[in-house]
Design goal:
The chain is of the alpha+beta class. The protein has 19 helices and 18 strands.
């Protein structure tokens, strides 16, 4: 697939399509000038063809249901069709797009068929500027809403609409929104029939009505998560909730300059806001800016804020302060396993093994389903030469992780358990562990290497060679290059032994 030539944007999953959700086509816009609408020769699909994109729909029970959009960076000259495949003619090449499998190839077919044109280009327009959904607002020129069906919207059109009847003056807040977003259209200051506002080049249409549109805008604006929309709403409403949503979105988008600019202007509103201060503290902490992280996190009195503060103290080698803050975090939340683990690690580094043991046992009593507490207690017992107990704890940690963690297997638990089995001579247990991992991740190179090593210990040379070879085939990690060289030597030695 040549990604420079063409990009596919799949908007809905197959399950959504099969559920027959009929999303409003008003909010699905093409790239470039509209050329025509057409149906395929088998009447399965409807295509809206633009200069640089094709919007694909399928039909079900007389409904036109959105499927996906193809965007190209080369001008579309012609589109033909054959059995679920579009053949898109661009400059000097034809691209085949398989609608069913969402696959693109440089391929042609002599038996492809022309589309049946149902609507040609005209000079009418409908430009959508605001859409309101139950998950928030979307604002922008020619706004596109694909995830949610709008319950209210505002568009600008030059189509002939008979506009007459009762007029009323637009209120100040409503006027501010209209003028902020649509000033270039030069809208008039009156709404007609509770639905229309005349502009220099057409008519603004509010659906379902002008009053209902603004009621719904007020109702759903605080659910908005689109950053550009929040920027506009901030200017219109200047409300704390909107600004808070915008700050959270900017933190999520990791834009430091934007965050600092908005905080400089509005931080006085949030000085005592635990959530915003925690997010800002965590943002700077993750960027290793500990001075700014402490500035915000010190304003918060929660278990998590004390935990972050303790972590910073460890980094700055303020061990007593770190210990104090970890203890405060635990006293505030007895189930806060991260604080138990980090404080125990502090004690282990200081060789305070008894304190670490008591702390982790307390943590397990308060959070018996957390695998990391068992794992860290296992590490402690391994460190103080109580390997049989450590193995029991690693096994417990592994079984809990298997039940609760999406990203199972946990590499650190598997490694500790595997090497502990080897140390204790529990070769069969180590083999069973690795086989279990390979059921979940059949191409994990290190598991194959370890299994090869086990079979070498067990004198099963053919199986050892087999798994060593799979390691060589599946390894993509440059860090394992030295291990690859070692494995090749081992294979050579094992082959030699078998032959002799």
């Amino acid at each position: 697939m040549n990604k420079k030539l063409i990009t596919i944007l799949i908007i809905f999953t197959i399950s959504q399509i099969l559920n027959g959700k009929n999303y409003s086509t008003k909010f699905i816009l093409g790239k470039g000038e509209f050329i025509h609408e057409a149906t395929t020769s088998d009447n399965r699909y409807i295509l809206e063809v633009f200069e640089y994109s094709i919007t694909i729909y399928f039909t079900s029970e007389n409904k036109k249901i959105f499927l996906n959009i193809i965007n190209t960076d080369k001008k579309i000259k012609k589109v033909l069709y054959k059995s679920h495949n579009l053949f898109i003619e661009l400059d000097n090449e034809t691209i085949k797009y398989d609608i069913k499998s969402d696959d693109i190839k440089k391929e042609d077919d002599k038996d492809k068929q022309a589309l049946k044109i149902t609507r040609e280009k005209n000079n009418e327009f409908e430009d959508y500027y605001i859409a309101i959904t139950q998950n928030g607002i979307k604002i922008g020129q020619k706004v596109i809403i694909l995830e949610d069906e709008p319950i209210a919207y505002l568009y600008h059109t030059n189509k002939k609409i008979e506009v007459k009847g009762e007029k009323k003056e637009i209120k100040e807040k409503e006027k501010k929104l209209i003028m902020t977003i649509l000033s270039e259209l030069k809208p008039e200051r009156e709404v007609i029939e509770n639905k229309y506002i005349k502009t220099k080049t057409g008519i603004l249409v509010f659906y379902p009505t002008f009053d209902e549109f603004f009621k719904l805008l007020e109702k759903y604006k605080n659910k908005t998560h689109d950053e550009k929309t929040l920027e506009v709403l901030k200017e219109i409403y200047n409300e704390k909730d909107i600004i808070s949503l915008l700050i959270k979105k900017k933190i999520e988008n990791n834009n430091k300059e934007d965050i600092e600019e908005i905080i400089k202007k509005y931080y006085s509103l949030f000085k005592k806001d635990n959530e915003i201060n925690t997010l800002l503290g965590e943002f700077y902490y993750n960027r290793n800016d500990y001075k700014n992280a402490q500035k915000y996190i010190k304003e918060v009195n929660t278990p998590y804020s004390k935990f972050i503060l303790a972590n910073i103290c460890v980094i700055e080698n303020k061990i007593q302060d770190a210990e104090k803050n970890y203890k405060i975090a635990i006293s505030m939340d007895k189930t806060f396993y991260k604080a138990y683990n980090n404080l125990a690690s502090l004690y282990i580094n200081k060789k305070k093994y008894n304190e670490a043991e008591k702390l982790l046992i307390e943590g397990i009593k308060n959070n018996s389903e957390n695998h990391s507490l068992y794992y860290n207690l296992g590490l402690l017992y391994e460190k103080i030469d109580k390997l049989p107990i450590a193995i029991l704890l690693y096994e417990k940690a592994n079984s809990l992780a298997k039940k609760t963690e999406k990203d199972y297997p946990k590499k650190e638990i598997i490694d500790s358990l595997y090497y502990s089995y080897i140390k204790m001579g529990k070769i069969d247990d180590a083999e069973d562990l690795l086989k279990d991992i390979l059921k979940k991740e059949p191409n994990d190179p290190i598991s194959h290497y370890n299994l090869g090593y086990l079979y070498e210990i067990k004198k099963d040379k053919k199986k050892a060679i087999f798994h060593y070879n799979i390691f060589l085939e599946t390894n993509r990690d440059e860090k394992n290059k030295n291990l690859e060289n070692l494995v090749r030597k081992r294979i050579k030695k094992l082959v030699s032994e078998i032959e002799n």
